[in-house]
Specification:
332 residues; alpha+beta; FAD/NAD(P)-binding domain; Polyamine Oxidase, Chain A, domain 2; 2 domains; six-stranded mixed sheet; five-stranded antiparallel sheet; 9 helices; 18 strands; 26% strand; globular
């Protein structure tokens, strides 16, 4: 086919892994991403004074496939090991990886060479005689795809797919939790605080000194993540309230009053973490030509997102091979 045969909606790690697997199989995918850069929650917020990994904090690589990706990225200077001073064993610390100079470096590498349209939010998908058509929020149509991959948070994918496949109900059953993140910088070092900690606090279960990661330029940039339960309860609260509460909890972890931050901001992640994974690598309706992938299929980890997308890409490639006509099942 001269035009792309598969539409991949979402350029997080799952969507990129799926698209790369398809490309390796000789299938030309087109990726649609609503944001201006790939990576989803592997995001970095940049200010004049500092940068913050305000979404995913680090990743691990246990499976052979993802380990190979990380080893290649490490050799290219795209990722590096993070060894924070935190409560925990040395073995745990030495297995943590981060992007260089920010978490978005790895997805940018995986997106290189792919056909990705940024700033395009897909709001509806339709199937007709010539294949799948995707409608974006500006009213434009992207047509004639043999298959569609929804590499999106489970609730979003379920809504898009509901008119077209019973598998949407399985995605709908997966719960994903929100997370409020607060970013703060300080002029002076905050003494007697670890670089990172799973605190056990009901409101502030995680904080990290972003400046302790390799390649970061602001040593006293801190990221505070609220709990799922509290974030859900305070989802519509004013950012000022969120910032005040999490900074108070941060001071409680320090056991003393902390100076006023030089910079403070917040971000609300609507679908930050999967609470009840599907338990399968991916979902694919061969008859309809529609598939689902994401960390929510397997586990709340970056590696799980990669594994899910890679698995769906392999299944789509196999389906095309079985068809043997250059079109996958579900195409006209």
């Amino acid at each position: 086919m001269n035009s792309p045969s598969v539409a991949v909606v979402g350029a997080g790690l799952a969507g990129l892994a799926c698209a790369r697997r398809l490309q390796q199989a000789g299938i030309q995918p087109r990726v649609f991403e609503s944001q201006r850069a790939p990576g989803g929650r592997m995001a970095t917020r940049r200010y004049q004074a500092a940068t913050f990994d305000h979404g995913a904090q680090y990743f691990t690589a246990t499976g052979a496939g993802f380990r190979q990706v990380i080893e290649q990225a490490s050799a290219a200077g795209i990722v590096g090991r993070w060894r924070p001073d935190w409560p925990g064993g040395e073995q745990e610390r030495k297995d943590l990886w981060v992007g260089l100079p920010g978490m978005g470096a790895l997805p940018r590498r995986l997106a290189d060479g792919l056909d990705v349209e940024y700033g395009v939010r897909i709001v509806r998908i339709e199937h007709a005689r010539r294949g799948w058509t995707l409608q974006d929020d500006r009213g434009a149509a992207h047509a004639d795809f043999a298959a569609v991959v929804l590499a999106l948070p489970a609730p979003v994918a379920a809504v898009l797919a509901a008119p077209h496949t019973p598998l949407a109900a399985r995605a709908h059953a997966v719960r994903m939790a929100p997370c409020w993140a607060v970013m703060a910088t300080y002029v002076e070092p905050l003494e007697r605080l670890p670089d990172a900690s799973f605190t056990g606090d009901a409101v502030l279960p995680w904080f990290a000194r972003n400046g302790s990661k390799p390649g970061r330029d602001a040593p006293q940039a801190w990221v505070l993540h609220a709990s799922a339960e509290w974030s859900r309860r305070e989802f519509d609260s004013a950012p000022e309230r969120i910032q005040r509460t999490l900074l108070e909890r941060f001071a409680a972890q320090a056991g003393r009053s902390l100076p006023r931050p030089a910079l403070v901001d917040s971000h609300r992640w609507r679908h930050a973490r999967v609470e009840n994974p599907l338990g399968e690598p991916c979902l694919y309706d061969r008859a309809a030509g529609i598939g689902f992938c994401g960390d929510w299929c397997l586990d709340a980890r970056i590696e799980a997102a990669f594994q899910s997308g890679d698995a769906l890409g392999a299944e789509l490639a196999q389906a095309r091979g079985r068809e043997g006509s250059g079109k996958m099942r579900g195409s006209p």
